[in-house]
Design goal:
Blueprint lengths: L7 E5 L3 H13 L3 E5 L2 H6 L7 E5 L1 E2 L2 E2 H11 L5 E5 L4 H9 L4 E4 L4 H14 L7 E4 L2 E4 L4 E4 L2 E3 L3 H12 L4 E3 H8 L9 H14 L9 E4 L3 E4 L7
Parallel strand pairs: 1-2, 1-3, 3-6, 6-7
Antiparallel strand pairs: 4-5, 8-9, 9-10, 10-11, 12-14, 13-14
The structure holds calcium ion.
């Protein structure tokens, strides 16, 4: 999908005020919102026709987390952004583990929501694009080469794989589980120290960007986000 074409966005929200506001905002941003108010309506919706889901967790007929798991099972590539008042770290971890791609806590800023939607939609067609460029970092997946500000880095295999994963999802969270599964190719139930060591070494290779924003943000206990320059909240 072209990122400039209207996205069909399934809005699952039982609050009339918030739902109407979201529909108005999405319309205004050129998207094509479909608003449902219950889990049952969301399940009945044609999700393979949808580009992204905005999901409230407190629904009248069930927990949005169950719906999240179900949607993620049916359509693993469908981006899901949870919008909820639940704000603890555990809530966020549980939401991301249920298959959500991003998480925004109510009350949220509309501009931020729209920016995150853009980020999620951008990564959609990009399953494994040959070249990904974010800020001064350029990753060529086909050639397995990385340049920062024009200078080539000499990365180890896992460092490259981790960077490639993070930068492909720039602006959104990659959970520790996802990183372990996709870079080390396994579900990891034990220590993930190897992940932290690889990340630390990757950070060192990348160096500090020109701005004061760090390249990779660690969300403690949750995962990591490769930052898009100037998208800072
Ligand atoms: Ca609700």
């Amino acid at each position: 999908m072209n990122q400039d074409s209207p996205a069909r966005i399934l809005v699952v929200e039982d609050d009339e005020g918030i739902g109407a506001g979201l529909v108005r905002a999405l319309d205004g941003a050129g998207h094509d919102p479909i608003w449902v108010r219950t889990s049952a309506e969301a399940t009945a919706a044609d999700v393979d026709e949808v580009d992204l889901v905005l999901l409230d967790l407190g629904l009248p007929d069930g927990d949005g987390l169950d719906l999240c798991r179900q949607l993620h099972d049916e359509e693993p590539d469908l981006p899901i952004l949870i919008l909820t008042a639940r704000s603890t770290e555990t809530d966020i971890v549980v939401g991301l583990d249920a298959g959500a791609d991003d998480y925004l806590i109510k009350p949220f800023r509309l501009a931020e929501l729209l920016a995150r939607i853009r980020a999620l939609l951008r990564r959609q067609p990009a399953e494994s694009p040959d070249v990904v460029e974010v800020g001064d970092v350029r990753v060529d997946n086909a050639a397995r080469r990385v340049h920062v500000d024009g200078t080539e880095l000499n990365l180890r295999q896992k460092e490259f794989d981790l960077l490639s994963l993070l930068i492909r999802h720039a602006g959104t969270v990659v959970t520790r589980d996802d990183a372990m599964e996709q870079v080390w190719d396994e579900h990891w139930f034990g220590s993930t120290k190897t992940l932290d060591v690889t990340l630390a070494s990757l950070r060192q290779h990348l160096g500090e960007p020109r701005s004061d924003q760090s390249r990779i943000t660690t969300l403690r206990g949750v995962g990591f986000r490769f930052e898009i320059p100037d998208s800072r909240r």
